[in-house]
């Protein structure tokens, strides 16, 4: 309880089903012996029947059983059976061309699926499926094949549809990335979704989840800063960050040692360096981060620097939370922030 907000604050969040406390607080109901997320749709208990916990293990040690409606022992999305069913299907067959008719054939309502995926991931299931298919196109282009071959490998009937999807992801049409370049972009798979890594022979320049809305704009800015010298491919640095990501998610390596190139002002780089100093399994508030860099009044500027970080996980901006313990904005999606913080508790 020492790390949690006041019980009145938590109870108000429970009544409002406030998602910003996901991954930070759980409630045990003494009359039922069950513990839940604060977003659980079940009937709300009286305040005197609530006990508050900082993690599911603590609730279980106190004798509470996990709720079967909100699934409090996993990430939020894992409690939604529709989401887990479809994400498993996407993992098993990432090149499948999904349609709303396929969802109906599975007994699912497309609008229900759309709302569930947007709530958990910020995008629809069909968009996630398109991004997964794009991976095949990226691999084909990287091997030097024609754009039409990459389009077919990605499962797109329309050339314009493939170009549009590719440009939305990379910020450039596919033929613009075919030339030889100093910086090379490639796709890396992780347990939390695909990531785009851009590296040269000396450093990692960008690492972002493919569904981040600002990814294309970030790539365009990086391209402008380096004179358009970005192509498809990988270097030893790409292989290195891929191996370090695998070790990080497997629980073997809490820190990244890959050399990075940070593009930003002196202030932004100071914030990003301080983020790298936060140990895995710990969090900081924006105010604490501002104080640590000697700028205690620059809380908003620190938050903006967080938002402009282009090296996800390596510069761990997901470890910054609200002063009241709530999960605040994360460009990779709050569901990822929740899962990353939960996973990093093992490192603590």
From TrEMBL:
Pfam families: Ada_Zn_binding, DNA_binding_1, HTH_18. It catalyses: a 6-O-methyl-2'-deoxyguanosine in DNA + L-cysteinyl-[protein] = S-methyl-L-cysteinyl-[protein] + a 2'-deoxyguanosine in DNA; a 4-O-methyl-thymidine in DNA + L-cysteinyl-[protein] = a thymidine in DNA + S-methyl-L-cysteinyl-[protein]. The keyword DNA damage applies. SUPFAM superfamilies: Ada DNA repair protein, N-terminal domain (N-Ada 10), Methylated DNA-protein cysteine methyltransferase domain, Methylated DNA-protein cysteine methyltransferase, C-terminal domain. Residues 106-180 form the HTH araC/xylS-type domain. Keywords: Activator, DNA damage, DNA repair, Methyltransferase, Transferase. NCBIfam families: ogt. This is Bifunctional transcriptional activator/DNA repair protein Ada.
């Amino acid at each position: 309880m020492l790390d949690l907000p006041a019980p009145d604050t938590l109870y108000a969040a429970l009544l409002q089903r406030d998602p910003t406390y996901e991954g930070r607080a759980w409630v045990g109901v003494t009359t039922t012996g069950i513990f839940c997320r604060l977003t659980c749709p079940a009937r709300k208990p009286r305040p005197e029947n609530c006990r508050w916990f900082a993690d599911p293990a603590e609730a279980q040690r106190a004798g509470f059983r996990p709720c079967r409606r909100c699934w409090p022992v996993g990430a939020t999305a894992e409690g939604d059976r529709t989401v887990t069913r479809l994400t498993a299907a996407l993992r098993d067959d990432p090149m499948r061309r999904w349609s709303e008719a396929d969802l109906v054939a599975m007994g699912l309502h497309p609008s229900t699926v759309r709302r569930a995926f947007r709530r958990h991931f910020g995008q629809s299931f069909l968009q996630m499926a398109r991004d997964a298919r794009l991976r095949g196109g990226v691999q084909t282009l990287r091997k030097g094949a024609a754009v039409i071959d990459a389009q077919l490998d990605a499962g797109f009937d329309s050339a314009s549809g493939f170009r549009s999807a590719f440009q939305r992801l990379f910020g450039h049409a596919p033929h613009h990335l075919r030339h030889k370049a100093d910086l090379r972009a490639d796709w890396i798979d992780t347990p939390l979704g695909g990531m785009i890594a851009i590296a040269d022979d000396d450093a990692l320049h960008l690492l972002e989840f493919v569904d981040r809305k600002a990814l294309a704009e970030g790539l365009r800015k990086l391209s402008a800063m380096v004179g358009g010298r970005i192509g498809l491919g990988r270097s030893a640095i790409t292989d290195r960050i891929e191996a370090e990501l695998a070790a990080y998610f497997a629980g073997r390596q809490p820190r990244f040692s890959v050399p990075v190139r940070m593009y930003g002002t002196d202030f932004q780089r100071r914030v990003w360096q301080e983020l790298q100093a936060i140990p895995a399994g710990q969090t900081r508030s924006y105010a604490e981060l501002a104080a640590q860099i000697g700028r205690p009044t620059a809380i908003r500027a620190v938050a903006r620097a967080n938002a402009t970080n282009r090296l996800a996980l390596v510069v761990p901006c997901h470890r910054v939370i609200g002063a009241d313990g709530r999960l605040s904005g994360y460009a990779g999606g709050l569901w990822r922030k929740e899962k990353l913080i939960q996973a990093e508790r093992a490192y603590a």
